[in-house]
Every structure is written in C-alpha cells, then in structure tokens.
Design a protein that fits this description.
The chain has one domain: Domain of unknown function (DUF427) (Metal Binding Protein, Guanine Nucleotide Exchange Factor, Chain A), CATH 2.170.150. Helices cover 0% and strands 54% of the residues. The chain has strands spanning 5-9, 14-18, 21-26, 30-34, 40-44, 53-62, 66-74, 79-86, 100-103, 109-113. 26% of the residues are buried.
Amino acid sequence: MAKHIKIRKVPGLWTVRSGGAVLGETTNALELSEGDLPPVIYFPRGDVAMAFLDRTDKVTHCPHKGDANYYSIVNKSSVAENAVWTYETPLDAVAEIKDYLAFYTSESVKVEQI
C-alpha cells in the first residue's frame, strides 16, 4: 500500500442519508486516510440500497487506488450527480475497498456515525 494511504475498520454503526432517505447502514465501515485529505468512510455495497443509485459514465484514475466508477443518487426530492464512487478493481495495495462505496458529502448527502 502507498505509504500515505491507511485503511482501517471503524467501530460503531454508520449511516448514509440523502433526501430524507436512509441509503445505507453498516457496522462494517472502512475508513481510508490518504495524506492530508480528510478521511473517507467506505460502506460495503451489500449494506447500501442500490435502488437509489444510478451508474454514470464517469471514471477517474488514482495512481494509488486504480479506476473509480461513479453513481448518482436519485431520490424523491433530488438527484446528486456522481455523488458515489467505487473501486471495482482496486490496485492490490488497497484491495480491501473492493465492493465498497464512498459518498461525497453535501447539503443533501450525509455520512455519520450513530
């Protein structure tokens, strides 16, 4: 793993909400810390209501993690474009995040520990 990336299981119950809907809850969240960037909470795909997510064509590349694919969050009150990312085939150094989703937080998307 790149020296500046750390992945750890975080304790407790974590939730992600958007537009008043709970998109996911998990006790199996991972926290990825990368250099000076704020830590990001990753949710297991199986703990997220995928019916709220629409796959987009956006793909970005990180030299330390690989290619990220994106989803928009669609609910009754809003659409949050490309608000979710996932590394479906991450580099070996960060293989732990395979099958996990991360969320850009905003006014309409909240990730929190309960």
